[in-house]
From TrEMBL, chain A:
This is Xanthine dehydrogenase molybdenum-binding subunit. It comes from Komagataeibacter europaeus (Gluconacetobacter europaeus). Signal peptide: none annotated. The gene is xdhA. It is an enzyme of class 1 (oxidoreductase). It holds the Pfam family MoCoBD_2. It comes from the Bacteria. GO terms for molecular function: iron ion binding; xanthine dehydrogenase activity. Keywords: Oxidoreductase. Its EC number is 1.17.1.4. InterPro entries: Ald_Oxase/Xan_DH_a/b, Ald_Oxase/Xan_DH_a/b_sf, Ald_Oxase/xanthine_DH-like, AldOxase/xan_DH_MoCoBD1, AldOxase/xan_DH_MoCoBD2, AldOxase/xan_DH_Mopterin-bd_sf.
């Protein structure tokens, strides 16, 4: 597609910004239908066992309490049938809220109190007492590692590692070897907005479900199948989402419980989770990676052996692609990888921003740094020396890889070439200064997506797709795309998202929304344009210039060309002339749009080079990140302002991964203990320096219809490693466990 | 949160009725959270915000009186505090966030409760919250727990920053109760857990903190509040140190030091402070002081790092104070 950038590529501020800061943007817990009941969930404090008795008599005495729903009195639903499968989930038997009295994980909902006020519901919830028969459990990751296994049925997005050469033999023969076990603590997504659902029972008995989710159509499908409803009977809305980071990829228990209750009680219901309850569902799995690298003395990688394990629950097999990234990104003749999952009695771990790569790339890039030092090579030079121009694991060409440019521009911007090689050799007063770098890689994905473009009598262009803007700027970039494609000023475009009733769009995730929904909007606008021109051409009373081929749509009006350059026609007038109230077009973007099915023969990735400066107090062990530079190669950048915000946000999150975020499991009870923002630390402003984001020029007309790769996750990949590597450079000490906390 | 009765008296005696099930509400930054978490279950909440006690006034001895209801933010910004007690201002600013400091009061700060994960979770055994249930923090995830002053019944850390400075400043707490008025040294105000960890301090039922008196602090620039924490703002201390040194001809005439983040109460060891008296600053002296302060420290599962880290923080803080370069709470670099 030949995109001339009047709108696309401009640093437009968020078009939904005013609605958000003035409170007009409505989130899942904000609709307030009449007669609404408040639901408060009671969670299990044990990890494994069986409910013996539920004592709710005292709770039922609280004025305003309408119902206390448990596995004993909840209505029947298809979800509870043996044959039920969760279409959203991972292999295994998905957890079914209030299915029966068996406890599978600490934090499992065992009752929901519904009351006329939130206060009454909460008070009553505190009064519900449950007796349990306790069964043995294991929530210890080290113990779980002994039970690691490869699931017989793998997740659909799982990429099996493909070995090459003879890694073990090459390792044995390598002149330089490094070997180590790297570890990442579990993390929780903790979006600012807690998970919540408000269910409205419409007059016709259908349900409108406001849910904090990344996929309204996925939740609609889940509820329809779980509650035996037709899709006409349940509509899911999420026009605004206060962050999610993957916690809203799968339906969280609140949405099923709220909708089940609304159906049972025939009343509007809201269920919101508390911050501690945000630690009772999705989390990034704990991970270990054993990485052995072999190289020749000149710094040429000869062997790469990567073994990784992530944790999953006892009832589902969550899998992540953590071991493949080095095999893809480095030219190394002998490489092998192995991946397993380790089961423990917790909820199922799940996708969190850059799932697999945030873990696998960061831990690998720490090992690469070790190898660079073992070879006595500058870490950037080592990476350039072993640079692969192809997907080395699949031996496939890439649609593009401007990582060399990212490395060069990032290094230049950072001043990397002034770095001294020797650890501990740079100081500023008392503090040791460390400079570290790493590279990042993430999939550039595309998912078939539909969008509708409609022109109304008011002369405004209305765009609709069931995409979710989880705070990333989707509203804005889709408006820019529509403006570009239709020749319309931005302020005459309305974007409607976050509604299962809109044209089909996959769940937001994987950084594919910009490429996919963007392409769908582009196509729909072009199609609408063609329709408008065709309608005018057929229209006897339209001015003759407007019925010819030489007409253009620009600035929101039709203009004549050549001798008719002075003539113009407003879109409202044009629409009136055609005799129609609205004109609309719906299109579906597919990866093979350009007629080249390049995706089958070429691999697609986003890349980055991250540079970091830290200061370490050698006596106290305190670490301050004082500079971060991230140079990103991500194809076409739709909006450098919102895109840079995505990268910066991910760099903050990755700083948390490197230094702060650590969900502390008490294995004795199977519970994450620091389940609030006072003790689960994410970086504060004081922890974050000025961050520079550079987008390197990367023209790629094969990766997706608009040449877009997506930027939501690449900022996670490499940043934590750059910080860890900078700490090594400052101190000469290798910390192989993330986060690196005080006293490590 | 459970149902409770609420009153807002306008006279002190009216507030001090003396029932065990009463909680005083001032800024609410701690009590309300605890009630929402079902940790505090008061039958009666007495809102004391209409009481006086909201001034900072000069004392005849050159000291200051801090009203119990003055907010932490106003205290830290008050010219008499920043002028005479920069150590106190610094410690206050090292704690919480501006929003919380705007609400939290000085009396409330004295009475804030531990951040122990197990105290906050009603499903867990906790002698401090539910006497006699045991201490789940022992053997649990206790990286943030105390290493000094612990007992079999409790290892919960006392969380305040402000109180660490008050201890170093030898402040006095003024109390008003059904039995009348009394004063308690801030160093004696908080209790060791022993086998009654549910009693954080010496307050009797109905007793209320009315003011904190600060004696003159002849430290000049020779003070610091050094706080080491897991992130650089809005985190409780892993180790913190408040120091004031009275310097004379290059020697320490008298030194005062208190530790936070490591003890079950603000941690002061008079014998350790006495080591400083009359001595010139030196590494060996400061190491000895640190050793004496940490004497008897006991680690549990996750918190041995505090015992390794604390002596280094103490030594650094003593140097900062000795050379008159107090820790800045805005520039995060530790000099």
């Amino acid at each position: 597609m030949n995109v001339i950038s009047t709108h696309i590529g401009q640093p437009v501020s968020r078009i939904d910004g005013v609605a958000k800061v003035t409170g007009q943007a409505k989130y899942a817990a904000e609709p307030h239908p009449p007669g609404m009941l408040y639901g408060v969930v009671v969670n299990s404090p044990i990890a494994r066992g069986r409910i013996e008795t539920i004592h709710d008599a005292e709770a039922r005495q609280i004025p305003g309490v309408i119902e206390i729903m448990t596995h004993l009195n909840r209505p029947h639903a298809a979800l509870f049938e043996k044959s039920y499968m969760d279409g959203l989930g991972v292999p295994g038997a998905p957890y079914r809220p209030l299915h029966d009295g068996e406890i599978h994980f600490n934090g499992q909902p065992v009752a929901v109190v519904f009351a006329e006020t939130f206060e009454a519901a909460r008070e009553a919830a505190m009064l519900v007492r449950v007796d349990y028969e306790r069964w043995p459990h294991n929530a210890n990751f080290e113990v779980a590692l002994h039970q690691k296994y490869m699931p017989s049925k793998t997740r659909s997005n799982y990429v099996p590692p493909k070995p090459r050469g003879d890694a073990a033999a090459a390792y044995a023969l390598s002149a330089v070897k490094t070997e180590g076990r790297y570890h990442l603590a579990p993390e929780h997504h903790n979006p600012m907005e807690m998970h919540a659902t408000t269910v409205i029972v419409e007059d016709d008995g259908t349900f409108t479900v406001w849910d904090k989710t990344q996929g309204p159509q996925a939740v609609q499908a889940y509820l329809a199948s779980a509650l035996s409803l037709s899709k006409d009977q349940v509509r899911v809305r999420n026009p605004y989402v206060g962050g999610a980071f993957g916690s809203g990829l799968r339906a969280v228990y609140n949405v099923f419980l709220a909708t089940l209750a609304a159906k049972m009680l025939k009343r509007a219901v809201r269920v919101t989770l508390t911050r501690p309850q945000m630690f009772t569902h999705a989390f990034r799995p704990e991970a270990v990676m054993d990485i052995a690298l072999g190289a020749s003395r000149d710094g040429t990688l000869q062997s790469m052996i990567v073994k990784g394990v992530t944790d999953t629950s006892r009832f589902e097999h969550n899998m992540e692609n953590i071991v493949i990234w080095g095999l893809i990104n480095y030219r190394c003749p002998n490489a092998t990888a192995d991946y397993k999952v380790a089961p423990r009695d917790t909820y199922t771990s799940s996708d969190m921003r850059a799932p697999g790569a945030a873990t696998g790339v960061n831990l690998l890039e720490m090992a690469i740094d070790e190898m660079a030092y073992a070879c006595g090579m500058d870490p950037l030079a080592f990476r350039l020396h072993n640079y692969s121009d192809i997907d080395a694991m699949h031996d496939m060409p890439l649609t593009s890889k401007a990582l060399r440019d990212a490395m060069a521009q990032g290094a230049q911007h950072f001043g990397w070439h002034d770095r001294s090689m020797i650890p501990g050799s740079m100081r500023d007063g008392r503090e040791l200064v460390g400079w570290g770098m790493a590279t990042g890689i993430w999939d550039a994905m595309f998912s078939p997506t539909s969008a509708r473009a409609r022109l109304g009598q008011d002369g405004r262009l209305h765009i609709a797709t069931a995409a979710s803007d989880i705070g990333t700027g989707t509203y804005t970039i889709l408006a820019q795309t529509a403006a570009e494609a239709f020749g319309m000023p931005l302020d005459r475009i309305d974007i409607e998202l976050g509604d299962s009733a809109l044209p089909e769009c996959p769940t937001e995730g994987g950084s594919w929304t910009a490429a996919s929904a963007g392409a769908a909007v582009w196509l729909a606008c072009h199609s609408l344009r063609t329709k408008l021109f065709a309608a005018l051409a057929r229209c006897k009373n339209a001015p003759s210039w407007a019925r010819q081929d030489s007409v253009k749509l620009e600035g929101g009006a039709l203009h004549g060309m050549n001798e008719n350059a002075q003539d113009s026609l407003s879109l409202s007038d044009a629409l009136s002339l055609t005799g129609q109230d609205v004109l609309e077009a719906e299109e579906t973007a597919k990866p093979g749009l350009r007629g080249k099915i390049s995706q089958m023969r070429k691999a697609r990735f986003t890349h980055s080079a991250v540079f970091c400066e830290v200061r370490v107090d050698p006596e106290l062990g305190t670490v301050r990140v004082t500079r971060l530079v991230n140079a990103v190669a991500a194809g076409r950048i739709m909006n450098p302002k919102t895109a840079a915000s995505q990268i910066r946000g991910a760099m903050v999150m990755a700083t948390g991964m490197a230094l702060h975020e650590d969900s502390l499991m008490d294995e004795r009870v199977g519970q994450f203990m620091n389940h609030n923002f006072a003790e689960y630390h994410i970086p504060a402003h004081a922890d974050i320096p000025d961050m520079d984001v550079l987008f390197v020029n990367e023209h790629d007309d094969e990766v997706s219809p608009l040449g877009v790769k997506g930027v939501g996750e690449i900022g996670m990949c490499g940043t934590a490693a750059a910080i860890a590597n900078a700490i090594f450079h400052a101190t000469g000490r290798r910390e192989r466990n993330l986060p690196i906390t005080l006293g490590a | 949160m459970r149902s409770f009765s609420y009153s807002r008296p306008s006279a002190l005696d009216e507030a001090c009725q003396g029932a065990e099930s009463v909680r005083f509400l001032a800024g609410g930054t701690n009590l309300i959270d605890l009630m929402k978490s079902d940790v505090e279950r008061p039958a009666h909440v007495v809102d004391i915000k209409s009481l006086p006690m909201r001034d900072i006034t000069d004392r005849p001895d050159g000291g200051l009186r801090l009203g119990a209801l003055v907010t932490n933010a106003d205290t830290a910004a008050h010219p008499l505090v920043t002028g005479r007690y920069p150590l106190l201002a610094s410690a206050i600013l090292a704690g919480a966030s501006p929003q919380i400091r705007n609400m939290a009061t000085n009396g409330g700060n004295l009475n804030q409760r531990t951040r122990c994960h197990y105290f906050y979770d009603p499903a867990m055994a906790c002698n401090k919250r539910s006497p006699g249930t045991g201490c789940a923090a022992r053997g649990g995830r206790n990286r943030i727990m105390a290493v000094l002053g612990t007992s079999d019944a409790c290892i919960a850390t006392f969380p305040s920053d402000m109180c660490i400075a008050l201890a170093a400043l030898n402040a006095t707490v003024n109390l008003h109760g059904p039995q009348g008025e009394r004063t308690v040294s801030v160093r004696d105000y908080h209790r060791l857990p022993g086998d009654t960890p549910w009693r954080d301090n010496v307050l009797q039922p109905g007793e209320i903190v009315t003011a904190i008196d600060l004696p003159p602090a002849p430290f000049g620039p020779h003070h610091t509040y050094l706080k080491i924490r897991d992130r650089q703002s809005f985190a409780f201390a892993i180790v913190s140190v408040a120091v004031g040194l009275q310097m004379e001809d290059g020697r320490i005439r008298r030194g005062s030091i208190a530790l936070g983040g490591v003890g079950t109460k603000p941690w002061c060891v008079p014998e350790a402070e006495a080591l400083l008296n009359g001595q010139p600053p030196s590494h060996s002296l400061f190491r000895d002081v640190a050793e004496r302060l940490l004497h008897g420290a006991v680690a549990d599962r996750d918190n041995a790092a505090k015992i390794r880290l604390a002596p280094r923080v103490i030594e650094r803080a003593l140097w900062q104070a000795a050379v008159g370069t107090p820790q800045s709470q805005t520039d995060k670099a530790i000099r």
